[in-house]
Design a protein that fits this description.
By secondary structure, the protein is an alpha/beta fold. It is built from 6 helices and 11 strands. The strands form 2 sheets. A 9-stranded mixed beta sheet has the order 9-8-7-10-6-1-4-5-11, with helices on both faces. A two-stranded antiparallel sheet has the order 2-3. The protein is globular.
């Protein structure tokens, strides 16, 4: 089985900066692996443990520094990694990003069986990229995956979170999963660190994946951010002691009335 992992490097949420185009500044900013993508990695590793001859290929689109999260994925058990990086990819929205990643997957792992993504990224929180990759590749998708039930070379069965509970769904392969929760990502062994240090991570440009400059980055993005700002934090409150229940209720009613005005 051939698994493709799409992961993302995101800025530390305490250190967000903006570019002149109102997109998040990624170069030179302290970054981490997107938390949902850690669940995606662990899900792929569990499949590798149960399905013979499984290989995991990891892709990320970002600046050169994003190579660090690819090394992290290799250190816990991924087999190969690709950095999709080109200045032409800058300021891409989810449509251009998914188009780029789909083209990269078709270029480096055309015979994939399963694609696994995190449900959403903490820097954008759109939850659109994974489903859009599936749309570009014309394959079935299951989103909000909470638990992997089983997987073999023909199908995958998962528990999916819905508003009123859990659904158990099956998809024939090839397919795409967007994982919302799973077990915590395992820690790498010393041998894993050695593998990461020796890994030959290939860099893919727009030309390498057969896309024109008009199809990627800002030029290929029909949407844009008109304004970006950090909301002001308002911390205030009042402690009311419940010595007299009736008086406390009246005080609460008065406070609510004042707030609504």
């Amino acid at each position: 089985m051939k698994i493709v992992l799409c992961i993302k490097q995101v800025p530390d949420t305490s250190d967000i900066q903006w570019t002149e185009n109102n997109t998040i500044q990624r170069d030179g900013v302290e970054s981490i692996i997107n938390p949902s993508d850690c669940y995606a990695i662990e899900t792929a590793l569990k499949i590798k443990e149960t399905v013979p001859n499984t290989t995991i290929s990891v892709l990320t689109m970002g600046p050169p520094q994003a190579v660090e999260i690819l090394k992290s994925a290799i250190s816990v058990g991924a087999d190969e990694a690709f950095l999709v990086s080109d200045r032409k990819f800058a300021a891409a929205d989810t449509i251009a990003t998914s188009r780029t990643l789909a083209a990269a997957i078709k270029t480096v792992v055309p015979d994939y069986d399963l694609i696994i993504c995190g449900q959403f990224a903490i820097d954008g929180d759109t939850a659109q990229t994974g489903p859009s990759i599936a749309q570009n590749l014309d394959i079935p998708q299951i989103t909000y995956v909470q638990k992997l039930v089983s997987c073999d070379e023909e199908k995958v069965v998962v528990e999916k979170e819905v508003e009123d509970g859990i659904e158990v769904l099956q998809a024939e392969l090839p397919a795409l999963l967007c994982v919302k929760s799973a077990d915590e990502l395992r820690r790498p062994l010393i041998s894993g660190f050695e593998n990461a240090l020796k890994a030959d991570i290939k860099v893919l440009s727009a030309e390498n994946i057969g896309l024109d400059a008009s199809e990627v980055g800002m030029k290929g993005s029909p949407t844009y951010v008109s304004k970006a700002f950090r909301p002001e934090q308002k911390c205030s409150g009042e402690i009311m002691l419940f010595e007299d229940c009736g008086k406390t209720i009246e005080n609460l009613k008065q406070k609510i009335s004042e707030y609504l005005k």
